[in-house]
User: Which sequence fits this backbone?
């Protein structure tokens, strides 16, 4: 895929005091518990919330600035910053990427209460010249063209003091960059942090008839409905069933049954070898439900721009991980994936440019990445091509596991 995120920069977001993370089609965060992997995923969830609800509600839903700002160090920070580089707009490239930066600043008033302000900036390449910059500060947005080394103001318009330009600026005229901002906002709003809620995924779903597109929810609580939707895609469905049989050798077929009378709900039935009756998904094993949720995600015909997956290995047999990694690589040609794992067995199946080692320093700040791709490659070469998972588990790649659970 050519349209993708290239880099994430974060300052003072939970344990992420100052990190810059390169992002490829498939990026896997590896490290012990509390190293900051989940906080990286939460950054993207936060940005998606900013689009869907605006900046103030996104902060409020996380108990405010104080709760998400970095907790380490001698005193609390007054600034939180998130920056992205991407190739989402028409003329963007890796050499001239789109750039977005959000800064939220806290100021303590004489009354003792806090006042928040925000500043945002967009940069993107135009057909000619160096590009265009849109800067949002206070209650105004300023559009500036960079031509021949000089800046020309193209006008400004009012904006609420703590409202995000991501949700407001798409109404700009196309000549001022509204199309590019709309594209950026559209991509960010599609971000999904996926973590199967097994109890919810087991439940029957009400079916929405005639839906042209259907999104798999971040908790997979519409798994039955989404699998029924995938069944209409013959090639995808057959491939999904084949994969499920590979990991679950006793599985013969997946069918659906309506329940609940007039409510028109559907449940998943697993036909398993040796059993005289099908197994409802409500009675399937934890690992089986998680596997089906992940396969549904990986065969999504209309994926978001970025899918983050929390603890992808949780509940899966190590033999299933080879298949999951293979499908992740295939799906990453259509959508980027950012994955967190504790599993050396999964890391064994990765390439050096797919892993990002995560650690924490003595002040509670995440160190991400703890090693560059070049350093990882050198370590692998020096080890005689020993599998990455073994190198990581033994501590050679850092991210010591002695303080975390597997």
Assistant:
């Amino acid at each position: 895929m050519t349209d993708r995120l290239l880099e994430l920069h974060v300052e003072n977001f939970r344990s992420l005091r100052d990190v810059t993370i390169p992002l490829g089609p498939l990026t896997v965060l590896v490290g012990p518990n509390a190293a900051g992997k989940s906080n990286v995923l939460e950054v993207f969830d936060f940005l998606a919330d900013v689009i869907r609800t605006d900046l103030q509600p996104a902060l409020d839903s996380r108990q405010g600035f104080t709760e998400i700002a970095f907790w380490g160090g001698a005193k609390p920070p007054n600034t939180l910053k998130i920056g992205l580089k991407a190739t989402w707009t028409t003329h963007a490239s890796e050499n001239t990427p789109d750039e977005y930066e959000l800064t939220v600043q806290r100021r303590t008033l004489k009354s003792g209460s806090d006042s928040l302000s925000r500043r945002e900036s967009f940069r993107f390449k135009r057909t000619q010249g160096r590009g265009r910059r849109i800067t949002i500060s206070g209650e105004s947005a300023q559009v500036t063209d960079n031509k021949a080394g000089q800046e020309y103001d193209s006008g400004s318009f009012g904006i609420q003091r703590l409202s995000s330009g991501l949700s407001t600026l798409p109404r700009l005229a196309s000549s001022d960059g509204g199309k590019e901002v709309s594209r950026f906002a559209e991509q960010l709003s599609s971000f999904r942090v996926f973590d199967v809620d097994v109890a919810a995924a087991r439940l029957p779903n009400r079916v929405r008839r005639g839906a042209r597109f259907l999104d798999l929810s971040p908790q997979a609580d519409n798994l039955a409905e989404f699998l029924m939707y995938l069944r209409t895609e013959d090639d995808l469905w057959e491939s999904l069933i084949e994969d499920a049989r590979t990991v679950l050798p006793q599985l013969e077929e997946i069918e659906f049954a309506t329940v609940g009378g007039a409510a028109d709900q559907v449940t998943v039935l697993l036909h398993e070898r040796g059993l005289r009756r099908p197994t409802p998904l409500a009675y399937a094993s934890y690992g089986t439900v998680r596997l089906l949720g992940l396969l549904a995600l990986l065969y999504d015909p209309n994926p978001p721009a970025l899918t983050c997956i929390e603890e992808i290995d949780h509940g899966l047999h190590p033999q299933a991980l080879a298949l999951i990694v293979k499908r992740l690589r295939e799906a990453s040609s259509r959508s980027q994936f950012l994955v967190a794992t504790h599993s050396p067995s999964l890391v064994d199946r990765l390439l050096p440019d797919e892993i990002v080692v995560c650690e924490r320093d003595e002040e509670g700040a995440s160190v991400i990445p703890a090693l560059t791709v070049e350093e990882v490659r050198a370590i692998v070469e020096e080890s005689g091509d020993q599998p990455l998972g073994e190198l990581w588990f033994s501590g050679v790649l850092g991210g010591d596991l002695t303080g975390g659970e597997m």
In short: The longest strand covers residues 98-108. The domain at 5-189 is CATH 3.40.50 (Rossmann fold). The chain has a mean pLDDT of 86. The chain has two domains: 5-189, 194-303.
